[in-house]
Amino acid sequence: MSSTQPIESEWDGAKYGREESTGVIFGMEADQVIFIAVGVVLGVIVVMINGFPWGLAAAIGLLIVFGGIGIPRIKGNSLIGWARIFTRSKSRQRSGNDQFVQKDDGVEIDLTDDGEVEIVEGPEFEIMDGPVRRGDDTPRDKKNRIRPGKPVRMSLPGEFGELLVYQLPGGGAFIYDPVLKVATIVAEVMTEKAFQLNSFEEKEDRLREWVSVQSTIARIPGVDIVQLSDQTTMISGASIRHWYEEQILKAPTVTTDDGETARQAGADVDPFMHQSLVETIMSVENQPVHDMWMAVVLSKEKLNERIVAAGGGVAGFMETALSMMGTIENAIPTSGAYITKWHSPHTLAARTRTAFDPDSAIQVSERGESGVAVKQAGPMYAAPRDIKTYESDGALHRTYKISEWPHSQARLGFLEKLVFAGDFRHTVSLYIKPRDTAKALKANERDRATWSSNDKIRDKIGKQQTARKERQIQDLVQEEEEVTAGHAPLKLICVITVTAETDRELNANCADLETRAAEANLELRILYGQAEEGFMAGALPFGKLEV
């Protein structure tokens, strides 16, 4: 009698650590410790002033209040942290900075009877604006240095309104943030073959190569953060048929034996298959399409020497970005993915515009490489609708963050549960934050020392250890072993933005996402009070993570 032996894998035993809660002492962050310390000082003052027993009773009551506020953590944040988030949100509401209204010419905005903002008429999409030129028109001086020209400022909500868009030689977009001194380049990514269609051995090979790619990109000097996104977009069958008919018209022609001209596509090749395909396309109202991109954020400070060597200023920064784009292009193909193009200012603006206004996706997609004028990348109107929902141009968005990754053995490709969560618009964005190896080991050593000190205090006061705390210590040990073994120290953050047209549809889509997350052994957390920041991080291709 034979038995099937499980396939041994180098990934067996690979686990994700739990959400960090080392803190300063007993898992409390610095603001919690300071808050409780203030309560202790006030309690001592009350005892000194009022004496015993009334002063002591008042001090105990005071400590209970401060402890009840300062110690608890709810959904990953202390009450003090939540207070800070909601205070900032209310402050923006009072000052009117939470609402964004497009001021470009051609936008007509009115108020409904309920006082809601209504877009009456928006501008037609233009093809060209300002510095957006063909790639071969981007000039260089006699010394072959880039001449950046005048940038275009993106009209976007909040701090995103500071972004300046240049065009690199070759047509790629260079998005510069003059406040943070960072620049973003964005690539369109495709995969050669669906991961789930591979055999187990092929999956391992692709994963091994992807780990190598991550390490390569993370170790490129100057890379501040990498955003990898997969966006599920719904398009109509009519638009797919329109695209199919365009491809037929572009197909080459041949002359038959009868002297007639026939195209090597569509009905001229096989009328029956052509008609069957058209009927199949038109029978489906909506078809899901997956768009993938990679945004790489470069730090001007970290690249200062290379930028100065390339001529300095924005021009030197752009030259440095060009060389790094080549390095990234060479690294990715081994993982089964490849870069089809680096987004131009127009195509990047188009992707941004459709994130705010999904209804414009079909109209924008028909423009092809013409894209959208950079100044029209933003929404006509956008604002947080409530503490967990962001509204823009009639669309509603809700963003989640993965708060807990799989604690047990994670199967290969487990994130597909989120990527293919359903036939509705949603974007899964994985942020990879490279860390310096020496600093990562030092932080690990500091956290372990903090746990050791906490354990000693727990023993003295007779407080028992918990399985959760022991697991977090094990996570630190595992992290040290992995970094010492040569793995790149990376911090992973994943945010998922779900989009719908109505509250009912949004709630239904979110329920589907939460169900699929549970199947993948993932815990999701709604970004309460950070609806705008969450949407910007999850649905836009700028690599901006403010949550």
From TrEMBL:
NCBIfam families: SCO6880_fam (NF042935)
Protein name: PrgI family protein
InterPro entries given in the database record: SCO6880-like
Biological source species: Brevibacterium antiquum
Keywords, in A-Z order: Membrane, Transmembrane, Transmembrane helix
Transmembrane segments: 33-50, 56-74
Region entry Disordered, spans: 128-151
Keyword Protein biosynthesis among UniProt keywords: no
Top-level division of the source organism's lineage: Bacteria
Membrane among keywords: yes
Comp. bias regions, Basic and acidic residues: 131-141
